[in-house]
Amino acid sequence: MEEEDADRRPQRSPREGSPERKDAPARKERERDPAADIVKITDVDAAFVLGKGGATKRKIARVSGATLEIVDLKSAGASSGMEGAEIEITGTPAARQRAKDYVGYVLSQRTGPVYIDHTMRRDDLSIVMVPMDCVGYVMGRGGQVLRDMENEWGTLMFFAKKKEDEGKDALADGDKVQEILAIFGTRRSRRGAELKVMSAVEHKMPGHFLDGESLRDPLDQPGDGEDDDFDYDVFPFRGDEFSYALGGRGSTRKKIASAANCILEYVGQVAFLAGNERQRGQCRDYLDWLLKQKEGEFYVDVSGRDDVTTVKVPTKSVGYVTGHKGEGLRAVEASTRTFCFTNGRPPAPDDGADDAMNDVMNDAEKDGGNGDEEEEDNRPGAENDGARKRGRSPEPRMKPRGGSDDHEVVLIFGDDKDDREKARRMITDKVRDHARHGGGGGGGGGGRKR
What we know:
alpha+beta
């Protein structure tokens, strides 16, 4: 009876790999992508390429445009006796080659200095010569400043030595006055990182890159002068404009750069604007208007611009919207990558503006009423043809503050229409909120503060 009961019990299959499982199939070797490039490395090298939390591998992949997979040969079902690891690199041929080059540079840093031909021209490399006295300042403690620049601009950066010096006595380094800083990445990312490094060096050693308001040597990196409109302009600051345009921890500079979708870095007392013609024009205007806010209220004629959305705000709600010292609008800007301020009184009513007062009265947003129905590009300064020097916008007409007796107009500037629309909704919501609470109080105005 017991034997019959035993036969009826469900039989468990032995676990895979247990001694009872004699017919368990051998683990299959990992299949490779036939189009992948394979780089064999040691376990130690694999850990170095991976980096903390995979950060180095992700950086190489981001900058090269390739996909990297690090495979531990001992745990990937490889043939018995295989040691070490391999990097499987997939992507376009150009991306795979870049990734292999970057892996080689990264691994060279583990065992000694990286040697590079600083005279070679490749479309993913910029070279900046950094004074020896500034190398530590640019790198930061443990290389953290350099890593932060890489993260900000999506680049791969490291200090290197000249190829012709490879094998020479290391004591000869004492005679050097500059160190090579290699910056790998796209044209735009390399230009941003280059200007960031120049800003740091000029702060530590004034006059190294600048002679007054001009560069000692024009910027010239691979990708410059390609007969497109990617270029750079300079915008010298005057008096106390620099600190005003910088803001706490560079917040004002970052705001203007984000709104204009333009590279904006301050080297000494000079702003460098880099990008295409539209981006530079927007950035130049935004800087100009920012600085004019120091002088008082002014009116900006936005007709013909396609980088602006206008919102009418009831006069009684302006202080609530802008907040104390402009903190309300600053919060909107930070959330939407825009540049916002209240406009001066226009010479005539602007019927194209979104009317937040009507939104409150109707308790519903108007469809398509963001003032952008008839948009055209009329960038001020387009005729300058890549001019290097600062070109200020035409002097604004100084007007009493406010669009009319019952409302003021908030200007929302930004390169991206969706960002501007998000800012418009946030401002409209603030007006509604103020109306729901009886329309009392307010933030004390301050819409002009940066």
